[in-house]
Task: inverse folding
């Protein structure tokens, strides 16, 4: 079972996404405190990270940049999401998420994007 770490400071959003992903057959670890992301990654070892841009006092784009510049985490695909920013605003920073999704989103599109990212990673691991 593929593992997905979901990082969002809104507990209602976390709960909704967790339910959607668990119904979709994923093992989900919700995290509402982005400061604990590296600890959570070490313990949970996610196959993918679903990361909000606005995380209270922390900017998700900064977290994304940190993850992509760290040797232990740079290969974990990141799907960023936001209700306030668009893809261009996310890409303008040094963060390079593997995909982006606007909030609110449709459940089927979320699952489709996740499956696409996980399949892409799986193909790289085979070769």
Result:
């Amino acid at each position: 079972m593929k593992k997905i770490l979901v990082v969002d400071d809104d507990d209602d959003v976390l709960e909704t996404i967790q339910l959607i992903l668990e119904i979709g057959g994923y093992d989900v670890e919700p995290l509402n405190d982005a400061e604990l992301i590296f600890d959570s990654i070490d313990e949970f070892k996610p196959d993918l990270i679903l990361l909000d841009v606005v995380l209270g006092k922390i900017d998700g784009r900064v977290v994304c940049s940190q993850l992509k510049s760290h040797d232990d985490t740079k290969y974990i695909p990141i799907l960023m999401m936001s209700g306030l920013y668009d893809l261009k605003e996310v890409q303008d920073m040094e963060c390079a998420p593997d995909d982006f999704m606007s909030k609110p989103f449709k459940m089927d599109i979320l699952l489709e994007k996740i499956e696409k990212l996980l399949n892409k990673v799986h193909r790289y691991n085979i070769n």
The chain has one domain: 3-110.
